[in-house]
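$ ./design --mode recover --in tokens.txt
reading tokens...
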């Protein structure tokens, strides 16, 4: 009799847990979908870029070019207890984006969010976490380039220019926050090599 009661109690608890998990998942996906619909509008993707970074490019012939690259403001960084929900949201933002071109724009935006997070972490002295976050940003940037290439758009497209300038911006951000760290040094080297390859596209 006690065994039967125990089994029924376990089944009831598991059923309740499954119901709550399913309800929470549906609610979370609904919130993520709503946030995606809002941010994916072209105007919102651009107006979310509120932090201007002044970048100077110096060419071999001693000419130089100055441009502003704007990145989004980051509210939550990787040391926040709820960061996992941000990671899930970003995954679905990419999933919900339709077509290679739209996915490329979203991947670039998410990469820029990551580099913004890394700036905050560098300022807090969390070099390893900042470097790891900057690597995530670079991974997103490489993915954005991959998706753009798959989209079949011409190389003079505005998005291609943004992708190229993002690489230069990431590199200079990391150099301006440089401290002696092997992982950071390796990452700067990788981004520099990637930027060099962009010149031959």
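writing sequence...
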């Amino acid at each position: 009799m006690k065994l039967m009661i125990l089994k029924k109690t376990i089944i009831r608890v598991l059923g309740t847990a499954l119901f709550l998990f399913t309800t929470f998942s549906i609610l979370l996906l609904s919130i993520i979908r709503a946030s995606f619909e809002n941010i994916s509008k072209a105007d919102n993707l651009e107006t979310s870029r509120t932090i201007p970074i002044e970048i100077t490019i110096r060419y071999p012939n001693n000419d130089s070019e100055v441009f502003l690259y704007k990145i989004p403001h980051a509210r939550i960084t990787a040391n926040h207890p709820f960061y996992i929900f941000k990671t899930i949201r970003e995954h679905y933002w990419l999933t919900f984006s339709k077509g290679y071109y739209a996915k490329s724009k979203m991947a670039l935006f998410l990469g820029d969010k990551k580099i913004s997070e890394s700036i905050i972490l560098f300022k807090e002295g969390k070099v390893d976490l900042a470097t790891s976050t900057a690597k995530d940003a670079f991974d997103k940037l490489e993915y954005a380039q991959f998706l753009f290439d798959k989209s079949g758009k011409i190389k003079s497209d505005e998005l291609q220019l943004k992708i190229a300038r993002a690489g230069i911006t990431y590199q200079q951000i990391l150099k301006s926050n440089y401290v002696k760290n092997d992982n950071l040094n390796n990452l700067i080297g990788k981004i520099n090599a990637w930027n060099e390859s962009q010149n031959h596209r």
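exit 0
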